[in-house]
Amino acid sequence: MLLDVMLPASQEQEVITQGLKPCVLYAQAPVYDSQGELKPGDSLLSDFQRDFDGCIFESKDVLYILAGQGSRKHVSLPALQALNAYGNAGSGA
User: Fold this and answer.
1) Where are the extended beta strands (E) located within 1-93?
2) Structure pTM?
3) Domain coordinates of the chain in residue numbers?
C-alpha cells in the first residue's frame, strides 16, 4: 500500500529538498527480502519515495518490486508514526 503522508509545509519542503516525495510503502506481508532482514510475519515500512514507476518503488536506499493488487491512501504524520511504532513493537527495536 502506498501511503501519501500529509506533512506540515516546512517538513514537506525538507523532504522535497532531499529529492524525495512524502510517500512511503507499507507492506503487511512482504513475500521476499533479498537482504534477509525480515522474518515471516514482519511488516515493512519504507523510507520516503525517491521514484515510483509502474511496479517499482524506490525509497532513499532500497528498490521494491511490487506485486499483486495494491492501494493508495493519505495518512497524517501522527498516523504514520503510530504505524511505525506498532511495526517496531514486535521486532524489539
Assistant:
1) 2-6, 23-27, 44-45, 49-53, 56-59, 63-65, 72-76
2) 0.85
3) 2-89
